[in-house]
Amino acid sequence: MICQVCRRFSREDGRELLKCLTSNIFKCPKLTLLSRLPSVTELRVSDCNEVLLGSISNLKILTLLKVSKNNKLIYLPQCMLLNLTPLNQLYISSFSKLNYLPTELVGLGALETLDISWCDEFESFSEQGMEGLKSLKNLGLHGCRKFTTSSEELQHLSCLEKLTLTGCPKLVALPDGIKYLNSLHLQISGYCIEIQSSSNAPYGFQTTNWWPKEPIGSPKLAVLLEALWYIPALQSLNISCYPNLASLPHWLGDLTSLQTLIIYDCPKLSSLLASIQGLTKLQKLAFRKYPELVKRCEKETGED
């Protein structure tokens, strides 16, 4: 909905109309209140004001919420996430000045997916806000230039299954708490690009560029990889867009639970270590843009 004149959805004579409203609100500068929307379970809000964002708490049966594009707010309205106990998916993007998430995040006990992208000033999660996310399975951060983390922030995410970190140049360590997870799929990328596995795509890849494929900074990949040594439940590892990665760590073969290893766009990587043969549970090994490496890995004929 693109609207320059609507101010509020609260009048009794508009109730029947509002039952048909299901999701999208874009560029409605004069719309200041969301209420009496009993049928709305999915909401996408873009380019809207702080007051309207605060009134999202009136939509008590939301299961999916996407908010995007705000260059003014340092923090989300404190009341925005109140009462959203059924919320299952939360996406926040392009809040260029956002520093942190409200503590009301702790009340989202049903949340399974939390995704934050292009929030340049976002630095970390608060431990208080994260400790209530007992159902969180998917956590993604993309293009958050100042993001760092500590073990205290993510130690409560006992159900976490997938962690995606793309284009976060300040990130130099993984949270210590992930070593206690029962299962983990990890994707680390130096650029803001998503790589998804697909049986129908060449090399088992399907790529989706979210933003221009240019580096915004290279985290200390070696330090990040070192933390993986202590994750016995790591089942999937996806490394992409690190132009200076010349070799894989020698202890990679110790990750005996690893089932999938995908490496994409690391042009200096020319061979595999012998220790990779220790990955006895490996089911998928995929490379892209490595013609020489592919030859080395061919069954029965390749050197590796």
Verbal overview:
- This protein has 304 residues and is α/β, with parallel strands linked by helices.
- It has helices at residues 15-18, 50-54, 127-130, 151-154, 221-228, 291-296; strands spanning 8-9, 24-26, 33-34, 42-46, 64-70, 89-95, 113-117, 138-142, 162-166, 184-189, 194-197, 205-208, 234-240, 260-264, 284-288.
- It has an eleven-stranded parallel sheet.
- The radius of gyration is 22 Å and the shape is elongated.
- The termini are far apart.
- Mean pLDDT is 76; it is low at 1-20 and 193-219.
- Residues 223-288 form the R13L1/DRL21-like LRR repeat region domain.
Query: Which value, in Å, is the CA radius of gyration?
Result: 22 Å
Mean pLDDT: 76
Strand percentage: 15-25%
Structural class: alpha/beta
* Helix content estimate: 10-25%
How far the N terminus sits from the C terminus, by CA atoms, comes to 56 Å
The profile of the biggest β sheet is: 11 strands, parallel
In total, how many beta strands? 15
Biggest β-sheet: strands ordered side by side in the sheet? 2-4-5-6-7-8-9-10-13-14-15
Which quaternary structure do these chains form? single chain
C-alpha geometry:
elongated
Detail the poorly predicted runs: 1-20, 193-219
Counting DSSP H or I runs of 4 or more residues, the number of helices is 6
Order of helices and strands: EHEEEHEEEHEHEEEEHEEEH
InterPro entries: LRR_dom_sf, LRR_R13L1-DRL21
Domain R13L1/DRL21-like LRR repeat region: 223-288
Keywords: Leucine-rich repeat, Plant defense
Protein name: R13L1/DRL21-like LRR repeat region domain-containing protein
